């Protein structure tokens, strides 16, 4: 089941629960008041013109419905709390792992590897990966050559690169790429024009934050915070 759809359902029930609580504290007819009025009505009815049985049944049915809705509301409140607790616990287990999110920059750690992916909408005769340092200077370009349409998955460790699991016949011209934040742009020649593609890059999860609206936010090394709904892939 899509998480975003589950969150939407829970939010709707949360709003209804709050509305129910407000009604009980306001002028609307609550469960206890309803029962009290029904009892008073029975005690003070005219013995010469007693209330019809059908009317009693209808009022009792109304009371049963109110009781059932109240129980359903309480059960869903418990379910919501349990669901969010389990979701937060599952998200906390991501700390120290790597995820892929929509981003054009990420952090290359010492001895680490950056993985990324792009979707090539059509075949291209010339695809390149350009890497910039935090000053915006181009430090390397990885030629991928002609590529068919579809998903391209690449890995870069500062010295070598892979594409779709195959080591490229390429090596960085720089003797050593220091750890740091780098911008990675993937461009493709499409329709005679150089087009920059949307990239998804890997980053390590430093911590997880649960907001006031119960939204889970992943704090990623070097590139900031992302909603868990933005994650493209959970990497091994």
UniProtKB/TrEMBL annotation:
The keyword Zinc does not apply. This is Basal-body rod modification protein FlgD. Keywords: Bacterial flagellum biogenesis, Cell projection, Cilium, Flagellum. Residues 86-231 form the FlgD Tudor-like domain. Required for flagellar hook formation. May act as a scaffolding protein. It comes from the Bacteria. The gene is flgD. Residues 110-188 form the FlgD/Vpr Ig-like domain. It comes from Sessilibacter corallicola. It holds the Pfam family FlgD. Belongs to the FlgD family. InterPro entries: FlgD, FlgD/Vpr_Ig-like, FLgD_Tudor.
